[in-house]
Amino acid sequence: MKLTREEIIELLSDPGAGVDLSRRADELRREVHGETVHLRAILEVSNHCRGTCLYCGINCRMTDTERYRMDAEDIRASVERIVAAGFHTVILQAGEDPGLTPEFIAGIVAEIKRNYDVAATLSLGEQPREVYQYWRDAGADRYLLKLETANAELYRKLHPGMSFTNRRRCLDDLFELGYQVGSGNIVGLPDQGPAELAADILDFQDKPYDMIAVGPLIPAAGTPYAELPRPSKELVLRTIALARLAAPEAHIPSPTALCALDPSSRREALEWGANVLMIGFTPPEVARKYRIYQRADCGSTANCLECLREALAEMNRQTGSDKGSGFRNRNRSNNG
Question: Is the distance from CB of 86 to CB of 324 less than 8 angstroms?
């Protein structure tokens, strides 16, 4: 049964609804996805960006940000580390960097697919349709592009000079080109209340996203929103749970940004409907420069992996042994 706007607003707002919402989401996650948690390796290949997102520490107006762009050799070495660590998905993520040419990315993707049995995921922002097609032809399997908010006016306020319509166009192109598409929202935006979050969740329900990433607003230092209060952990967890109820077949991560609210909350998200964990594999010498938000001081990739694997063992959950491909979009397409 589909969620209604009124039901979503009530579940977000009712102080007593949390326990039941968590239970419903966790039961549905178990029914559809079992006890498997899929691990995704993130490699942040550049922090150059033409975007203007007012909360992001790598937006083009952040003149004090120390910029970097990984070369092909460093990317290859990082991918080898990811595969050696047993991961089956590699995510190449960056700001919207014109210096990462379509040809360069296509070459990296083709090399990854030629040499390793992994899913190649891109998260490189808004691009022309022909670029998305070029990368798909090179072997890219998945693409992550957060809508961030389904409210066009709120989007406009947060992204001066950027276009909500173009954001939608990009997502539509990705669906049509056969990508497994990931999107999501940010919880805690200014002027965002239960009604705006309900619109996001209805979007998750209506669009066949294969992955839905719900994360808290953690503004970067030096941005116009740096002093905004952070959302409550409870609100983020409720939104994750509602995303699960709205899109049972979608993969839903426990986001890294949750650690900035409370280190224990990444585990909690796995009890509120999440079934994916993202692990950073960006080389330490440049990872500190990828300040899209104020990160928690959780230590290295190795520390993060050890912590999360201990948590999974305590929860009787196991890590996936395959690529964890999405099937929501495919099922929707097969059913007309």
Answer: no
